Structure formats: structure tokens, C-alpha cells
Amino acid sequence: AQQNSPSSTGSGNTEHSCSSQKQISIQHRQTQANCDLRRQIDEQQKMLEKYKERLNRCVTMSKKLLIEKSKQEKMACRDKSMQDRLRLGHFTTVRHGASFTEQWTDGYAFQNLI
């Protein structure tokens, strides 16, 4: 007979409302945690894109500098070859009638020996 009394049903409603409030509170915290995690993911993705762009700029600059250095080395090598050619000697093409022959021309280092 006490189960149907107003005091027993009231406490049951209170327990039910407390448990539903706890569930709502838990769901609210989970939703907040999900939102925080999504925000962190977005921030990390933005940072990743920023670092990718920076890396691409660095790679581009490195390529540019390597190409420039290679061109400078090539020009230095060409200059040295020309200096060595004048110092040691070189072949020159000489025309004899209708034909061409190559003739060695001594450079100044060999001429000074003679």
C-alpha cells in the first residue's frame, strides 16, 4: 500500500530526473570534448598546411641555389679550361686545299720550354 503513496512515487521521479540530468551532463561534456577535439584537429591541420608551404618554399629555394651554384661551377670550369688551353696548347683546324686537318698549337708553357 505504501508503493502507491505520493511520497514513494515522488522519490522515484526524483531519482529518474537525477539520472537523466547526469546523462545530459555527461552528454554535454562529451559534446564539449568532441568540439574541443575537432578544434584541435582543425588547428593541427592548419599548422600542417603552414609547415608544408614552408617546406615547399625551402625546397624551391634550395633548388634555385643549387642550380645557381652549378652554373657558377660550370663557368669556373670553363674559364679554367680556357686558361689551361692557352697555357698547354690546343688543336686548331687548318685548311689544306679542299681538306681540313687538325694541327697542334703549343701553349705559352711549352713555348717557354723551347
If you had to describe this structure to a student in words, what would you say it looks like?
This is TLK2. Residues 1-31 are annotated as: Disordered. GO terms for molecular function: ATP binding; protein serine/threonine kinase activity. One of its GO terms (cellular component) is perinuclear region of cytoplasm. One of its GO terms (biological process) is chromosome segregation. The structure is a single chain. With 114 residues, the chain is α+β, with helices and mostly antiparallel strands. The chain has one domain (7-113). Helix content is 78%, strand content 14%. The chain has helices spanning 6-88, 108-113; strands at 89-96, 99-106. It has a two-stranded antiparallel ribbon. Strand 1 (89-96) and strand 2 (99-106) form a beta hairpin. The chain is rod-shaped. Mean pLDDT is 86; it is low at 1-10.
Defining key terms:
single chain; 114 residues; alpha+beta; two-stranded antiparallel sheet; 2 helices; 2 strands; nucleotide-binding; TLK2; ATP-binding; serine/threonine-protein kinase
Question: Using only CA atoms, what is the Rg?
Answer: 44 Å
Q: How does the major sheet shape up?
A: 2 strands, antiparallel
Give the topology string: H per helix, E per strand: HEEH
The percent of residues in helical segments reads over 70%
Organism: Cervus elaphus hippelaphus (European red deer)
Keywords: ATP-binding, Kinase, Nucleotide-binding, Serine/threonine-protein kinase, Transferase
GO cellular component, one term: perinuclear region of cytoplasm
Region (Disordered): 1-31
